[in-house]
Design goal:
Low-confidence stretches: 1-10
CATH superfamily of the largest domain: Apoptosis, Tumor Necrosis Factor Receptor Associated Protein 2, Chain A
Strand content: over 45%
Shape: elongated
CATH architecture of the largest domain: Sandwich
CATH class of the largest domain: Mainly Beta
Number of strands: 20
CATH topology of the largest domain: Apoptosis, Tumor Necrosis Factor Receptor Associated Protein 2, Chain A
Largest sheet: 10 strands, mixed
Mean pLDDT: 91
Order of helices and strands: EEHEEEEEEEEHEEEEEEEEEHE
Number of helices: 3
Radius of gyration: 23 Å
């Protein structure tokens, strides 16, 4: 196999072991759906080790910013650095794992000699851009991808830690997409701080659109626009709904100005039920009749929602 570390300084050590990772397990079901839906990058949930928070960053089709082809890229990322003091540095020895499900043993990848690497403000992720070739990963006899399911893992040694966390990303083989159009009439007469659309169903979940016609508390010169999971309170603890979200402000006239569209992937949870943009369109642009976004005092907005999968906590 061809494994190359991110910086390719001293190479890597590859070994096999039966013991699972001590700090984090990242299981993915319907892995092929990541490729099918062109998910360039997926960041796992945070986990703790050595008094710091970490996460795994997976590039199913390789890190294109590093010109990686035909490989999976996997990195360890230090998370929540805002709480760290100015000039912070964290020295870490880490291992990344890939489970051979046939032989029930983990492929273990680490820097040669288990040497420590330095995380700092300008280097918040380290790992392996060429973790494993697609041909090796997809070969059924190797056991890394079984029934379209794979398992990665991580150990991070800053100081002794016995806490083990993990999550499972279950991608839907047939992702559900729905486009909801909301015609907002008498826009200039809206007096409430925000307005909510009628609810709509996508992927067995109920959603609605939330629009601040004069911006939210921090953005008074723009329209703020969000997608909200209506029944987030019914989600089980640790469950996340992984969604591709496109929000649009429609252009209603034949002008050179095109429809405004913004897109993001986001995990909706009980504590974070909404996602969108505080500045999707400026009020000056909206109210300019030549631009075509507000015709006969009607504004048309859309949400194209694709439920990609579910993320659950591994117990």
């Amino acid at each position: 196999m061809n494994f190359i570390s991110e910086d390719s300084i001293e190479g890597v050590t590859i070994s096999q072991r039966h013991a699972p990772p001590s700090h984090y397990i990242f299981k993915i079901q319907s892995f092929s759906s990541l490729m099918k839906n062109q998910i360039e990058r997926y960041d796992s949930g945070d986990f703790e080790s050595g008094g710091y928070k970490w996460k795994l960053s997976l590039f199913p089709d390789g890190n294109k910013k590093k010109s990686v082809k035909d490989h999976i890229s996997l990195y360890l990322v230090i998370a929540d650095t805002s709480s760290l003091s100015f000039g912070w540095e964290v020295n870490v020895s880490f291992k990344l794992f890939l489970l051979d499900q046939i032989r029930d043993q983990y492929l273990t990848i680490e820097e040669s000699g288990g040497r420590y690497r330095r995380f700092h403000g300008m280097k918040t992720e380290l790992g392996f851009s060429h973790l494993i070739p697609h041909t090796t990963f997809n070969n059924p006899s190797n056991g890394y991808l079984v029934d379209d399911t794979c398992v990665f893992g991580a150990e991070v040694f800053v100081s002794k830690s016995t806490d083990i966390g993990g999550e499972c990303l279950s991608m839907l083989k047939e992702a559900t997409t729905f486009t909801y159009t909301w015609n907002i009439e008498k826009f200039s007469e809206l007096r409430e701080a925000y307005n909510a659309s009628e609810p709509f169903i996508v992927g067995d979940y109920k959603w609605y659109l939330k629009l601040y016609p004069k911006g939210n508390a921090n953005e008074k010169n723009h329209v703020s626009f969000y997608l909200v999971l209506t029944d987030s309170g019914t989600l089980a603890p640790g469950l996340k709904v992984y969604v591709k979200n496109r929000l649009r402000v429609k252009n209603q006239a034949s002008t050179s100005t095109s429809t405004i569209e913004k897109e993001a992937n986001f995990c909706f949870t009980k504590s974070s039920p909404g996602w969108g943009w505080a500045k999707i369109i400026s009020l000056d642009t909206l109210n300019d009749q030549m631009k075509g976004f507000l015709i006969k005092d009607t504004c048309i907005v859309e949400a194209e929602v694709t439920v990609l999968g579910l993320v659950s906590t591994l117990s």
